[in-house]
Amino acid sequence: MATKRVSVVIASTRPHRIGHRVAQWVLEAVPPEFEVTVHDLRELALPFLDEPGQPADGDYVHDHTRRWSAAMQATDALVLVMPEYNRGYNAALKNAIDFLYAEWEGLPVGCVGYGWHGASFAKSALRQTLERVKMTVVDGPGLAFGTTLSQEGEVTADEAQEQSLADMFAELLARARR
To answer: Which CATH superfamily is 4-175 part of?
Structure first.
């Protein structure tokens, strides 16, 4: 079987974030059948949507958009490591999604959320957006402050979260684009 490519996106751009620590937990569980690339939205530094045309047209004029598009075209599956802020997902993630359109169609995506209540509200809201852009959403774990995640980002996931992460990767592998 050919190696599949999975992209792990760290969605939080806050100065004092823990998303990179949650992403490390995710990266340690990536099956060997996947070649991994990490994309950090803080480093990607996409400005607020600045393309003059519609994303659905795919006619990108800015280099940052072309790089983001090429990265997503080169992936077979996607994992979003995403925080929950005020019962929603963060603006940087929404912006990154809105920059593109055709690149998302058929791309399987798993969401690993973290926050109070395991980011259940943010994951629910995000699912609607991801389905609208025709991504194939795969269930992923949610880490909750005080039970499976410390405020400093130490993951203390229990067996249920570990299994949820393994199941997410198995489904992403089965649904990978190429």
So the answer is: Flavodoxin domain (3.40.50.360)
